[in-house]
Amino acid sequence: MIVSSRTAPAGWNVALPEAPRAPAAPAAAARVSDLAFDPIQAGMIILLGLTVLFNAILALVNAKGLAIGNGVVAGIQAGLVGGAFAFGVARRGDLPLRWLALAAVLFLGNLLLSMARGELNPKFLGDVLTIPAFICLGTRLNLRAVIGLLVVLQVLMAAFGIWELLYPDAYAELFNPRLYYINSRGYSAQEFWSGTDLYVSSVRQDGRLLLSWTDYHRGSSLFLEPVTLGNWTIFVTVFIISFWKDMRVWQRVVLIVGNIACLCVCDGRLATVTDVVLPLSLPFLRLLPGWMSLFVPFGFGAMAATIDFFGYLKERGDTFAGRLRGSLDLFYQTKWDEALGLLPLDTLTWDAGFSYLIQSQSFILTLILWFTVSLTSIGENWKGRTYIFGSAIFITLCLSISYSILSIKVVGFLWAGYGLLYARARMAGAEATGTGSLAHLPPPLPPRPRTTWE
């Protein structure tokens, strides 16, 4: 029997029951502010979108009569990297100190290498600062906003790519990639041997791999050149597999159909093979610990060297095997002073990404960079392991034949996704242990309604 304070005799020591508390408000209702417009989040999404679209925007301006020089392009890219860093530290709470420290090491290392070489090339610094900058940006992003941006960009890429194949003259008149690359990259008119205003590699001498029965050229869409569009499809494949359960059915369909369209447009041979290999291999690789992604480039290098040792890599020319052959030859010829980054860069390394990275950054900075990103946990769940193994395969295959993977146009998005997973891995660890500050993370968006067909 419960005795109230009104009826209890004097002197009784009665522990009275507490008044019932009002039920707690649901999380979504308690955080109504999450529904409000967040200008910082919007600014980050705009910046991330510009990393993909800025080349097309500049080419459009250049085609309309305002010449865009290399300095403008370099300044825009530097602004995007600086903006990514700025947004990365814009919110209150924990700073992404690991990535700011990595940026400091890369900056100081490049400064010392520039002094040793007697020349300053800002591009070398920009190649690697993009990585910590966009990881910092990714730690502040909302996943749903990132998926929405990716879907919009994929629709644009597919639409402009198909339009380019069907109406190449109209596309060339709008963007004029030939004039843009002559003005902004120092290309000569003679290098555009195909005789069109499209990019120099818009026509492959041995013809197309996909849609070979047509007379279509190799399309570039909003990237203006085919190789980066192929790299884009590889990144999108990694993203789709990693974030499959976070997307709605219609978003998956748009990304997959758009990827097939972009792949047919660019006719990328490496992209075609990689886009097939990744869905077949990642379901098995994600069963391994994420830190084992460290060994992907070393394992690939050992395999290529073994195949070469037994005489099965003799092909020359503009094929994957031929370019890998050339990349290996250049790697074998690397001297210690080149590996330490003490000599001016050999222009031949532009088609040999590993040699380019090692000679521009030194093998010491290259190892520091790779060990940091591959040994940092972005979650030991299936999502984090899929993303880190997919990224490692993507980077390794691209670096084996070119340095295009270092372009901000694709890797900005790639490393932003890495940073997003890194932040959520930290959040999960803090919730599990009850320690650590989560104030640096963006507020979660309210749960979306699910339809029966999902």
From TrEMBL:
<feature type="transmembrane region" description="Helical">
    <location>
        <begin position="68"/>
        <end position="90"/>
    </location>
</feature>
<keyword id="KW-1133">Transmembrane helix</keyword>
<keyword id="KW-0812">Transmembrane</keyword>
<keyword id="KW-0472">Membrane</keyword>
<protein>
    <submittedName>
        <fullName>Polysaccharide biosynthesis protein GumE</fullName>
    </submittedName>
</protein>
<feature type="transmembrane region" description="Helical">
    <location>
        <begin position="253"/>
        <end position="271"/>
    </location>
</feature>
<feature type="transmembrane region" description="Helical">
    <location>
        <begin position="96"/>
        <end position="113"/>
    </location>
</feature>
<feature type="transmembrane region" description="Helical">
    <location>
        <begin position="40"/>
        <end position="61"/>
    </location>
</feature>
<feature type="transmembrane region" description="Helical">
    <location>
        <begin position="291"/>
        <end position="313"/>
    </location>
</feature>
<feature type="transmembrane region" description="Helical">
    <location>
        <begin position="222"/>
        <end position="241"/>
    </location>
</feature>
<feature type="transmembrane region" description="Helical">
    <location>
        <begin position="388"/>
        <end position="418"/>
    </location>
</feature>
<feature type="transmembrane region" description="Helical">
    <location>
        <begin position="145"/>
        <end position="166"/>
    </location>
</feature>
<feature type="transmembrane region" description="Helical">
    <location>
        <begin position="363"/>
        <end position="382"/>
    </location>
</feature>
